[in-house]
Specification:
Number of helices: 15
Strand order of the largest sheet: 15-12-14-13-17-18-16
Number of domains: 3
Radius of gyration: 25 Å
Strand content: 15-25%
Structural class: alpha+beta
CATH architecture of the largest domain: 3-Layer(aba) Sandwich
Length: 476
């Protein structure tokens, strides 16, 4: 027995010793980091520091945490959260992180798909830019300076305060942070007219790893190229963007038309691919594909929702749709005319006539979980009908609250911008983008996350097979 005991217990003891040593080392590093912050900037830094011993730490961490997959007990948490009020606070956080061997995660809106702005497996700190959100608009010059902590909703709202015919071609979700959105390229509802958000950055203020505050002139064109689509805060902390604003008409038109399999959805999705090349660049076109229940108990179908923004009035839209995609059967009753700023509220899925003030609301929405991935379909190889039928089968296989594909038409201005103009290369030659997403609630314990995420990957692989070798039969 003594021999058996002596062979078993040293290893748990060693594990506990190493774990305790690691915890003490992290605690010491945490204290050293805090002392460093105070020595770097003792005037106001204390009011923007949050550690696990603060009662507000969890609420600060979770406020801009937009994916429940990274809000579990097993998710690594930052040793410190810094919510800077100015550039000096950011410089101090960078200097002290380097000095004490801590990684930095920079959070603008917290919408990144894999939690990269607030999670890593090594000791780290989060610089949360939520307090740096000033938006300054110059209507005469058609520019705006936007701090990286401002959300897209705040950007759109502040622009609309000054002009109803100026806009910025960013994304549809108002709580997405401008810092990460633009750093990654920035898809939006006007991409076929004006390209991506990153295509309209004309200057920047960035703090690099040495704590230097750089603009376009001082950083050089190589770095300026890299930060416009090369990934959020990969090359430093973006403090503010200088945006080139674009012109929109006083009246735009929106529509959301749905068709089920019983209403010929498969053929319509296939025909939509051929129509993209005929669309006016003023038209943004996207299809949402999802499984829905029917009126018959226990029976489901596939719903294709055709969602569009047209930069112009309804009469011109109907004429254009009749020429390019008459199969959809769009009629005037399907369409709504409104201002561009009103369309940002509409496409954020708020009820009609919701106040524009909702664009300023940063409060957390759903705490559900999701897994998403993006792919592209070449103009040379649209998806055949038989492959679409295979996709419908896969949508019916998954046990989740929502499984969805989004097909976003390319073309227009996207074809005119070189694939090397920014790090975002998906330009000419792409017919449309596919966005695969699966959502499930935190309370839904029946959902297997591993199976859910593998479904996203396998469905993407299925499309990739068609893109790569152009098979004309469904390969199950």
């Amino acid at each position: 027995m003594n021999s058996l005991s002596s062979s078993k217990f040293p290893f748990p003891f060693l594990f506990l010793f190493l774990f305790s040593f690691s915890w003490v080392a992290s605690a010491d590093r945490h204290e050293d980091f805090l002392q460093c912050l105070h020595s770097q900037n003792s005037n106001s830094i204390s009011m923007v520091i949050f550690t696990p011993i603060n009662s507000s730490y969890s609420s600060v961490l979770q406020f801009s945490l937009r994916n429940g997959r990274f809000n579990t007990g097993a998710t690594p948490k930052p040793l410190v959260i810094v919510k800077p009020l100015n550039e000096a606070h950011i410089q101090a956080a960078i200097a002290c992180s380097q000095k004490h061997g801590l990684q930095i995660r920079v959070r603008s809106g917290g919408h990144d798909y894999e939690g990269l702005s607030y999670v890593t497996v090594v000791p780290f700190v989060v610089i949360d830019l939520i307090n740096m959100r000033t938006v300054t608009v110059d209507v005469g010059k058609k520019i705006a300076w936007v701090q990286a902590g401002a959300t897209l909703g705040e950007v759109y709202y502040r622009i609309s305060e000054k002009s109803r015919t100026l806009a910025f071609p960013g994304g549809v979700c108002p709580t997405v942070g401008s810092g990460g959105h633009i750093s990654g390229g920035g898809h939006g509802m006007m991409m076929r007219k004006y390209g991506l958000a990153a295509d309209h950055i004309i200057d920047v203020k960035l703090i690099d790893a040495k704590g230097r505050i750089l603009d376009r002139a001082s950083m050089g064109e190589d770095l300026f190229w890299a930060i416009r689509g090369g990934g959020g805060n990969t090359f430093g902390v973006v403090v503010a963007w200088k945006l080139e604003l674009v012109t929109v008409p006083p009246t735009v038109t929106v529509f959301n038309v749905t068709r089920t399999l019983e209403q010929n959805a498969t053929k319509l999705v296939h025909q939509w691919q051929s129509a993209i090349g005929k669309f006016d660049e003023d038209l943004f076109s996207r299809i949402f594909l999802s499984r829905v229940n029917t009126s018959q108990e226990g029976k489901t179908t596939i719903l294709a929702a055709y969602t569009s923004l047209f930069l112009g009035g309804v009469d011109r839209l109907l004429s254009m749709m009749q020429q390019s995609f008459p199969q959809l059967g769009l009629v005037k009753e399907d369409c709504i005319e409104m201002s561009w700023i009103e369309s940002t509220v509409y496409f954020a899925s708020f009820p009609r006539n919701t106040s524009l003030d909702v664009l300023l609301d940063r409060s957390p929405g759903s705490t559900g979980s999701f897994k998403a991935k993006t792919d592209y379909v070449s103009v040379k190889e649209p998806i055949p009908e038989i492959a679409l039928e295979g996709i419908w089968e896969r949508l019916n296989q998954l046990d989740a609250q929502v499984a969805q594909l989004q097909l976003t038409a390319y073309g227009g201005k996207m074809d005119e911008i070189s694939e090397t103009s920014t790090p975002f290369p998906h330009r000419a030659g792409n017919l449309f983008q596919i966005h695969y997403a699966v959502f499930w609630g935190d309370q839904d314990i029946t959902v297997d996350e591993a199976n859910t995420t593998s479904w996203v990957q396998s469905d993407a692989t299925q499309i990739e097979v068609y893109n790569r070798i152009g098979e004309k039969k469904y390969n199950s």
